[in-house]
Amino acid sequence: MTSRELSRSLWKAVDALGSRSRPQCERTVWRAQQSFQPRISRCISTTAARYAEATEQETWEPFAAAPPIEFDSSGDGGKKDSKNMMRTLRVVPASPSYFSAKPTFTDDFLSLSALLRTVATLPVIPPAEAPKVAWKTIDQYRIMTNEPVKTARYHKMLHILRRLNCIHPSLVPDEVVQAMLRYKKPNQPGDIKPTPGVIDELGRSKGVGRRKTSSAVAWLVEGEGEVLVNGKSLSQFFGRLHHRESAVWALKATHRLDKYNLFALVQGGGLTGQAEAMTLAVAKSLLVHEPALKPALRRAGCVTRDPRKVERKKAGHVKARKMPTWVKR
Amino acid sequence: MPPSPCLRSFSRLSLDASTHNFLAPRLLHPRVACFSTSTARPAAAPKKKGSTAAPKKGVKSLNTKKGKKSPGGDAGKRPAQGDRKALRKRIVLSNDNALEVSSLTDLDKANVLSDANEGKVMGLPAEKVVDALRAVDAFKTTQGWSLFRRPAVLMRKEAMQLASLFREVEDSATGPQKRTIRRILSGERMSGKSTLLLQGMSMAFLRDWFVISLPEAQDIVNAHTDYAPLPNSQPMQYTQDTYTANLLQQMLKSNVTFFESAKLTTTPDLPLPLPAKARLADLVALGMANPEASWPVFVALWNELSQPGRPPILLAVDGLSHIMRHSAYMSAEVKPIHAHDLTLIRHFVDHLSGQKKLPNGGLVLGATSQSNAPTSPALDFCIEVAQARQKTSDNVPQWNPYKNVDVRVMDALKDLNSDSKDFDVIKVGGLSKEEARSIMEYYAESGMLRHQVNEGFVSEKWSLAGMGNIGELEKVSVRLRL
Lengths: 329, 482
Fold this sequence. Notes:
The structure holds two protein chains of two kinds.
Chain A: H1 2-16, H2 24-34, H3 78-88, H4 103-119, H5 138-145, H6 151-165, H7 174-181, E1 205-211, E2 214-222, E3 227-229, E4 232-233, H8 234-237, H9 241-247, H10 249-253, E5 260-267, H11 271-289, H12 294-299
Parallel strand pairs in A: 3-5
Antiparallel strand pairs in A: 1-2, 2-5, 3-4
Helix pairs in contact in A: 4-6, 9-11
Chain B: H1 4-12, H2 83-89, E1 105-106, E2 121-123, H3 126-135, E3 152-154, H4 157-173, E4 180-187, H5 193-206, E5 210-214, H6 217-221, E6 228-229, E7 238-239, H7 241-254, H8 256-261, H9 280-289, H10 294-306, E8 313-318, E9 326-330, E10 336-338, H11 343-353, E11 362-367, H12 377-391, H13 407-412, E12 423-428, H14 433-445, H15 455-464, H16 470-479
Parallel strand pairs in B: 1-2, 4-11, 4-12, 5-8, 8-11
Antiparallel strand pairs in B: 2-3, 6-7, 9-10
């Protein structure tokens, strides 16, 4: 806190010097921290923007609810007294945002902003390196809070959450972790970890790939570039050169074609599907041998399973989407 | 004999109008064939175009063709009769745009059988071998001869195997026991079986052997040429006179050096008289000129070749599975004729099966085909057995007893299932990487492959070509250049 105050006062001093054309780039550091506060910049104004001094507003402090009303304490005063008391009673809600349209959301937003303010000085990592988190979608959040939250507002909140997620993982306070938990989906992307492949005693690694309706199993052993698909040579099995290339694309793209021997069993679908199922299978079995090739293989487009399948035919349609031609009568 | 003026006037007598108006100049008369009694009719005047009335306005016509000027088909010029087939069957052996390969050495009589040129690309000498190979139709349209400046072949491992067989036969020629070696070439599609057969033929031409080649077995059995029963044959055999005459012509054209010097030593029994002091070439020419005598001429030629002192013989056939089944010919009882009942094929099969020996030694080569092959289960089984025996002799496949077996084919090929060294299968497989590199360097030097030939490139193409299948290798590196 003190350092922040110091830097701010320094900046104030600089501002006071009247340097109109302030170097914007230098300010980005703490302006990013400030950007979560509601700030109105009017373009019409010609005065240099000044930042509010009192950032720690008292309104953000934890709100104490009114003590419960003791109806019985003045019960002996009789009916009239209680009636008077009921007239003068003012029920103070637990949350200061009770009278707003979306009290839970407002509370969430305010508490997250407050939390961010407390942890804003912690070192951060670039967003690309931050742990991958699947946040709740707006619909899930609406169901959770039962409030008609607007998308833009929710995105503002997600912005804060992502900033919190960028705190250096070794320094994340426990309260931040607990707070973020409320907005995470129950299942996170890295939760299910596939069992790593193994090279068996014969030096083979196995990979399975699918595409369209074809599926392929590929085994890779170290060798000098021999390929057998269903017991046939590559040229016998795939007549088109394009299919041959896509079948061994994972090896070709990484210049490993002459380093391994490949055996594959392919079934189902057509030749294109079989060749591209082999791409995936070969890439997976290559990753068992050399896991470091994963980025290269991803760039070559060998890692992702193509989930597209033939769309089913619908009733009343000629094909999946095609409608019968219009006839006048 | 009538007097000539009468004849002349008779010839002028044509029964059209021109005889009546003598005054018209003669050149204007329509030329009419003399002696024709029909009146000359001028050709019908060409119809005026667009004479048909335009369709009424507002009336829909049924003609759905739009923007076509001549509705009666396209006006493009059709190729003349036979042009299309000539274009299809044309053999192009040189490409002027390809570069001359400076390092290419030619095969010659001395080095053709030597082990030193293993894995090298060697040129075929133009006047001696290429013309002869052309004469026997050894070049096929599907092969890539038209891509390079001049024909050249890779001396691969299987070719060296063939060369060693040639050496064995030639070594035995001096001894009393002349050897006849028989081989079946089998392998994947585009693996170079026909080219290996061509290499064998070029070796034979260079070593002055006598070559009899049946360039395409399908042409013999598909009933496109005439056939006739051979008299006094039991069981009935059939000769193919036109085909045999054509074969004699091919033999005469290809074995030029042999026919130049060869003399007739026996007196053949022919239906036609042979001129006195005839040479062997005259005998063959007689068979060519008279197709009905072509089979006796072939037999007489074979007898001549069987005499001691004649060169060894190479018998070659391509498309073996066509002759290992029933032919498309019908007998008089409307039963299919087995291919082995055709005299030419019987002659070949007798030597392939070992029933007859080549008297002066020689080689019998049969190449199978994978792209143009009718089913011949017996042949496939025999080849499978032979290949299994090459690996281990104890795990030989058995014939499925529930399948119909072609007994004649099984009998002809039963030697494949024995220990004899004379009859075997040469498996034409993929190239090794060194061979692939050598031929790809040849492609690059010819300017047909514009890429640096390094190890990575060679092994990549080797893998994509199905472990060095040479036809696929050519397709991958030369034909499908991107």
